[in-house]
Design brief:
The chain is mainly α. Helices cover about 60% and strands about 5% of the residues. It contains 13 helices and five strands.
Length: about 280
């Protein structure tokens, strides 16, 4: 998974926002992201964008949105969403779904899709994927390598902060209640003619009818099942850890090289580097 570093803080919208997929994560949000791309909605923003694809720049902006929504720091309105999401015609997944009221207000002409599934199945899926990652304690190797890539550390910390705010500090206790409240809230905010309640198992027909698009001849995408989720994140993490390992090796290797050169020079010139360092410290 390629990682970019695009600073969108001064960007502006260059295409209309046409579709808001505001179902919570683990309801088919990756499948519909791929489906919307197939229908010509370029690009479609997804949680992967800020956790694996453009880090930490996107998450820096999401952190400001989180501070404005839950921590009373600053503001984050349409202008800011246009900067962050201005290259997209659609959004899907968290963190966008966590900002459903704000996005509905910012883009009143966009069509809204609520991807949905049985709440117990959603809870089980989320508990075994996203929540499991949040609760997982990092290994000693990961903690060491993280010293050399603060971008990844920051990204994970901001996602966890957003997650804890949204689920009121206790996913296991509050998740099912908040799930129901979220869907009820979107139904109340969006006129029925602009709202589609959708399950990805329904395929192309209801989606294309709602969006007034021809039905593709290809099968509806199927992505991000629990196994695919773990594989995709593992792939992204592997790239990050390879980068961290390279940085660690470079820094430690450079330090070793400097030490070897210093010893060699010291032997050839009879310079006492220990004395010099003491003099500098003194």
């Amino acid at each position: 998974m390629a990682t970019t570093h695009i600073d969108r803080s001064h960007s502006t919208r260059d295409r209309p926002m046409e579709v808001l997929v505001l179902g919570l994560g683990r309801t088919g949000t990756d499948s519909i992201r791929q489906g919307l791309k197939d229908l010509g909605y370029l690009d479609t923003y997804h949680g992967y964008c800020c956790t694996a694809e453009n880090i930490p720049e996107d998450m820096i902006m999401w952190n400001k949105a989180i501070e404005a929504k839950w921590e009373g720091k600053g503001t984050f309105g349409k202008a800011e969403f246009d900067s962050l999401l201005g290259h997209c015609m659609a959004v899907s997944d968290m963190p966008c779904a966590a900002f459903a009221p704000e996005l509905i207000a910012a883009y009143p002409n966009a069509k809204v899709i609520l991807t949905n599934r049985d709440v117990d199945a959603w809870y089980k899926s989320t508990l075994g994927t996203i929540q499991a990652l949040i609760e997982r304690k990092p290994s000693a190797r990961r903690r060491f390598l993280s010293l050399f890539n603060q971008d990844l550390v920051f990204t994970q910390a901001v996602w966890t902060k957003m997650w804890n705010h949204y689920f009121e500090g206790d996913f296991r206790k509050n998740a099912k209640r908040i799930y129901g409240e979220h869907y009820d809230m979107v139904r109340q905010l969006v006129p029925k003619e602009r709202l589609l309640e959708y399950r990805v198992q329904e395929g192309w027909e209801p989606l294309c009818t709602f969006l007034d698009k021809p039905i593709p001849s290809t099968p509806f995408p199927s992505g991000n099942d629990p196994g695919g989720f773990q594989k995709r994140l593992k792939g992204g993490a592997t790239g990050q850890y390879q980068e961290m390992a390279w940085m660690a090796g470079t820094i430690l290797g450079a330090g070793l090289l400097v030490g070897v050169v210093a010893v060699a020079i010291g032997k050839r010139t009879n310079v006492d580097f220990g004395s010099l360092i003491s003099m500098v410290k003194g």
